[in-house]
Design a protein that fits this description.
Blueprint (H helix, E strand, L loop, with lengths): L6 H15 L15 H7 L3 E15 L3 E9 L1 E2 L2 E2 L7 E8 L12 E16 L2 E9 L2 E4 L24
Protein name: Outer membrane lipoprotein Slp
Organism: Thioalkalivibrio nitratireducens (strain DSM 14787 / UNIQEM 213 / ALEN2)
Keywords: Lipoprotein
């Protein structure tokens, strides 16, 4: 007769494995120090390291760094929630060269670092003040897969239809 481990041991081991897979990719700011990009502009001075994310709307490669312009969104598990209202725009300064093909307009990104300054700029014809984060860690999120329903894959669904 073989002995099986108690159910509690199995549950504990599975919990550890799942927790290990759910690690966050970027550092977490100190509790109570988080501000939005709009709030950082209102503060008007350098701000401790922040964790901001959103969608890239501009890429500017310079001689020693890349400046990304990002529309900020709230985060869930460090991933931008583009189904929510924006938190304002911000810029992320990253040392070195970021290929604009990878970091292209429309990609989702999360960045961590101190907000060292603000810069005046424009969104179309409107003047705008951008907080500038010096990105010490950057996460580029994968693009969602677009499935073609005509590809013959199997799908299941439950619903109620009313025809008139």
């Amino acid at each position: 007769m073989t002995s099986r481990p108690p159910r509690a041991v199995v549950v504990l081991l599975l919990s550890v494995v799942v927790a290990a897979c759910a690690t966050l990719p970027l550092p977490v700011p100190e509790a109570g120090t988080q501000v939005t990009p709009r709030q950082a502009v209102e503060i008007g001075q350098p701000v401790h390291a922040q964790l901001w994310g959103g969608v890239i709307v501009g890429v500017d490669n310079r001689s020693d760094h890349t400046l990304l312009e990002v529309v900020g969104y709230p985060l869930r598990n460090q991933e931008p929630r583009t189904d929510r209202m924006t938190h304002g725009r911000f810029r992320v300064q990253v040392a070195g060269f970021l290929d604009p093909l990878d970091y292209r307009v429309g990609r989702r990104i999360t960045a961590y670092g101190p907000v060292e300054r603000t810069e005046a700029g424009h969104i179309g014809a409107v003047e705008y003040v951008f907080p500038v984060m010096v990105g010490t860690a950057v996460q580029l999120w994968p693009e969602p897969e677009v499935r073609d329903r005509r590809s013959g894959g199997v799908t299941f669904g439950i619903g109620i239809g009313i025809g008139l």
